[in-house]
Design a protein that fits this description.
By secondary structure, the chain is α/β, with parallel strands linked by helices. It has 9 helices and 15 strands. The structure holds nicotinamide-adenine-dinucleotide. Nicotinamide-adenine-dinucleotide binds near residues 7, 12 and 67.
């Protein structure tokens, strides 16, 4: 498949490297409004563009990956879908629910695949924990709890009061759905607005359709250089614990000596773990697209994530729990 990458910054570079690892794909073009960035990633084997409309017309790629800033995902995705491409889009799909729904509907109308990059599902830690849950090793899921702290990424400056929800917690909201099923209601607290009014700390609590309950407690800290996230999923027969997603997963049974530990077989470190999950997701999308199989994390997962974000914002504004 002929693949193009639109947006050649930090993440676009990773998309391109993952495409180059795929036996099903060839990187044919890159695009960035900064020509030097497009060229740096294109190298000698792909063509560099500064206008994605020209790229779509001239290169006629089969697949496009989108790694432009959060508020610039919609137009390139719609144009690529309408040009007949399958699209792998960075999270969040869009900054409004209406636009996200339009993206997923357009993919369906055009008969093309649309994936959203909730790459954490492809990390060793969350993937292993999910496998243990699916295997029934903790019985029925009763609760889940995330802790998340991270540095403030430069690209969210000026992106509104709820940038942490859109840009970061959208990953963990997706993981909550993955572990516990559909969210029935959400309640949100926000605190510590910075000088531009962006809330730095968030607490979300969830009720799931299954009857399970959950929470996410998270925050951005100026100057923090490493993402720290921990998860506990509890069930009727035990619990899976991730104290640090980059290191290990523990499975606790009901008795004190019933503990199993799982570690990734690659050298762990922040870049390795993060790049591993990004590469694995791009590679999965390319392989499945090549085989005509829909993506594991579809545009509709991106829409559902944003419905929950919208519910959280409504809850924060009204002070009430919001049913979804
Ligand atoms: N999945 C993840 O874990 C993860 C992690 C970090 C960032 N992201 C997401 O990836 C996206 C990109 O983030 P980043 O850190 O690479 O940002 P970045 O600023 O490094 O890169 C964005 C690039 O897009 C280019 N661009 C802007 N407008 C464009 C246009 N109209 N056409 C072509 N190129 C254009 C910019 O010049 C820039 O080079 C964001 O949506 C971000 O939320 C995802």
């Amino acid at each position: 498949m002929r693949v193009a990458v639109i947006g050649c910054g930090y993440i676009g570079r990773r998309h391109a490297e993952a495409v180059r690892l795929s036996p099903y794909a060839e990187l044919v073009a890159t695009c960035d409004i900064d020509p030097a960035r497009a060229q740096a990633i294109a190298g000698t084997d792909a063509c560099a563009y500064t206008d994605y409309v020209a790229l779509l017309q001239k290169e006629k790629p089969d697949v496009v990956t989108i790694a432009t800033p959060d508020h610039l995902h919609v137009e390139p995705t719609l144009q690529a879908l309408r040009a007949g491409c399958h699209v792998f889009c960075e999270k969040p799909l869009a900054m409004t629910l209406e636009e996200a729904r339009l993206m997923a509907e357009t993919a369906a109308e055009c008969g093309r695949f649309l994936a959203v990059d909730y790459n954490r599902r492809f990390s060793f830690g969350y993937g292993k924990a999910h496998q243990l849950v699916l295997e029934g090793r903790i019985g029925d899921v009763t609760h889940a709890m995330f802790r998340v702290t991270d540095g403030i990424p430069p690209f969210v400056k000026g992106r509104g009061a709820y940038a942490f929800l859109f840009s970061m917690l959208t990953h963990h909201i997706d993981l909550m759905r993955w572990f516990c099923g559909e969210v029935a209601s959400v309640y949100a607290l926000q605190s510590r607005p910075d000088e531009e009014g962006k809330f730095l700390d968030t607490v979300l609590s969830f009720e799931f359709a299954s009857g399970a309950i959950g929470s996410i407690v998270g925050g951005w800290r100026e100057g923090q250089t490493r993402t720290i996230e921990a998860l506990e999923v509890g069930g009727t027969q035990g619990a899976v614990l991730i104290e640090d997603v980059q290191k290990r997963v523990r499975l606790h049974g009901l008795s004190p000596d019933s503990v199993e530990e799982f570690q990734p077989d690659y050298f762990w470190g922040i870049q390795t773990e993060f790049y591993h999950s990004l590469d694995a997701h791009v590679l999965s999308f390319l392989e499945r697209t090549h085989k005509g199989e829909p993506p594991l994390v579809s545009g509709w997962d991106g829409v559902r994530g944003l419905e929950i974000v919208a519910g959280a914002i409504e809850s924060h504004c009204s002070g009430c729990r919001v049913r979804l």
